Amino acid sequence: MFIAPKNTDLLLIEAEGENLYLKLIEQINKDFNLANEAIDFPLSMSPNELKIQLHEKIYRLIQYKFAEYLNLLYIIDVSEEQIKKLDGSDLVILAEEVAFLILKREWQKVWFRNKYR
Description:
- By secondary structure, the chain is an all-alpha fold.
- It contains six helices and no strands.
- It has helices at 8-17, 21-34, 47-64, 66-76, 80-85, 91-115.
- Helix 2 (21-34) packs across helix 6 (91-115).
- The chain starts with 7 loop residues before the first helix and ends with a helix.
- The mean pLDDT is 95.
């Protein structure tokens, strides 16, 4: 049964532990490109660097390309209910929380694909 990790660091540790970290990066790249938000995280990227880069990308989207940001959330299939629960008063914190929701959804896709292939 899929149990979502509680935070970004635990998620990335779990992805590495299950040897699915590279698949996670591939899934993120794929979905961002589907949403026309060109991103190409190298497979050699460390988990910490992924966390930072994803956070920065989400922050820039919220700040400068809000319609594209909403489209990205739709393409990735991040829960609208979870997004609405977030406090948007601090954009830096909001971007960090959204980046975690994105990672969590992408990890769920990778995990299920691996478990049930």
